[in-house]
From TrEMBL:
DNA-binding region: 131-230
Domain of life: Bacteria
NCBIfam families xrefs: PRK10529.1 (NF007820)
Residue ranges of domain Response regulatory in the record: 7-120
Pfam families: Response_reg, Trans_reg_C
InterPro entries reported for this sequence: CheY-like_superfamily (IPR011006), OmpR/PhoB-type_DNA-bd (IPR001867), Sig_transdc_resp-reg_receiver (IPR001789), WalR-like (IPR039420), WH-like_DNA-bd_sf (IPR036388)
OmpR/PhoB-type domain span: 131-230
Name of this chain's protein: Two-component system response regulator KdpE
Source species: Rubrivivax gelatinosus (Rhodocyclus gelatinosus)
Modified residues (4-aspartylphosphate): 56
SMART domains noted in UniProt: REC, Trans_reg_C
Origin organism lineage: Bacteria, Pseudomonadati, Pseudomonadota, Betaproteobacteria, Burkholderiales
Annotated keywords: DNA-binding, Phosphoprotein
Length: 230
């Protein structure tokens, strides 16, 4: 019996890195396809319909951010960025364009595969075929009733705290930038008010984390935003 394998498209112009990534993915059982540039990457993405893309930012015929932005106009497939660019501005630009994660070169095969598994798991968890309930630790979020409980006790969250929690928890393992959270929770007029997020996140952690100073679920991505881990 042939098992349907998940497809990954690698868009990377450096042959050695492309080969390294392909071998790592194939060793883990993924069907892997390759592209050397932006335009070829978009063509391969349209024809192969991959479950996930691994994209370098420094492509010979354009910037990977443009590829991600174009892809997001017609595909929700998760995107992991590979890049030698370490600046926060570069990371934020890629994530705001629609990337889901950002891995800085050099990197190990183990870390890459862990990121791939996390993104594909997130994609599976978001499939709307079950009850609208999110569980993590001893917390249960009932989306239909807008109710949050720890065990049998209700947690009393403010409307802002509830929006923050559900925005993050509904997208597990994805890096959400400050700007994305501000737009989703406060609206487009608050793009620069990052202190809003920090204050309310600190209050939210006190209510849902067992150790607010060492959060296990609402994780900080320094200088960029937050990530939810279930």
């Amino acid at each position: 019996m042939n098992e349907l394998r998940q497809r990954v498209l690698v868009v990377e112009d450096e042959a050695e890195i492309r080969r390294f990534v392909r071998l790592a993915l194939e060793s883990a059982g993924y069907e892997t396809h390759e592209a050397e540039g932006l335009q070829r990457g978009l063509i391969e993405a349209a024809t192969r319909r991959p479950d996930l893309l691994v994209v370098d930012l420094g492509l010979p015929d354009g910037d990977g951010v443009e590829l991600i932005r174009e892809l997001r106009s017609w595909s929700a497939a998760p995107v992991i960025v590979l890049s030698a660019r370490t600046g926060e501005d570069d990371k934020i630009a890629a994530l705001d364009a629609g990337a889901d994660d950002y891995l800085v070169k050099p990197f190990g095969a183990g870390e890459l595969l862990a990121r791939v598994r996390a993104q594909l798991r997130r994609q599976t968890l978001q499939t709307p075929d079950g009850e609208p309930v999110i569980r993590f630790g001893d917390i249960c979020i009932d989306l239909a009733r807008r109710r949050v409980q720890r065990g049998d006790e209700d947690l009393h969250l403010t409307p802002i705290e509830y929006k923050l929690l559900t925005c993050l928890a509904s997208q597990p393992d994805r890096v959400i930038t400050h700007q994305q959270l501000l737009k989703a929770v406060w609206g487009p007029g608050h793009a620069e008010d990052t202190h809003y997020v920090r204050v309310h996140m600190a209050n939210l952690r006190k209510k849902v984390e067992a150790q607010p100073s060492m959060p296990a679920h609402l994780l900080t991505e320094a200088g960029i935003g937050y990530r939810f881990r279930g």
